[in-house]
Amino acid sequence: QVQFVESGGGLVQPGGSLKLSCAASRSIFTLNYMGWYRQAPGKQREFVASITSGSWTNYAESVKGRFTISRDNTKNTVYLQMNSLKPEDTATYYCIGDGAWGQGTQVTVSS
Question: For the residues 85-104, what does the mean pLDDT come to?
Answer without folding.
Answer: 96
